[in-house]
Specification:
By secondary structure, the chain is mostly helical. 71% of the residues lie in helices and 0% in strands.
Length: 164
Amino acid sequence: MDIVTAKIETLFQEKLLLYQDLLEVLKQEAACLGEVDVDRLWQFSKAKQDLAVRIDEIRHQILAVLTDASIEHGMDTSSFNVSKIMTLLSAPLYQTLRRFNMSLMTLKDEIQTLAAQNKRFVEDYLKILDDLMGIITATDQNDPVYAATSHTDRRANLLLHTEV
């Protein structure tokens, strides 16, 4: 096995491990969402960002190995495409990367599903809180429920709207 093959295989193994770590963080985040532990949720957010940066760094390193080996790929980290990379490599490495790619695709599907579920949970939770705030402040009635003399703004309650 030549040096290029060894480097690319090692980098793809690292990338696979990072995706497994990301899936684990999302599972922990899902468990934490039910507990509404905001401090831990912030930690998960940071962990996900750190993993995304590390995955991007691995992509950059893979492209650098290809460039150093004079393999023309025409990609950067934002246009990174494993299938295209596989077509540029020798048959033995192609087969190895094919197995990694299948594992990565499975992990990515699990990650997307879990991330969508977590996002939907947060959105539903924020909607419930927003509705409760609307009820308490009675934004759609003439007089607020808990403050008959209040001068509240009658517009929609935007207090809890945030990007998830």
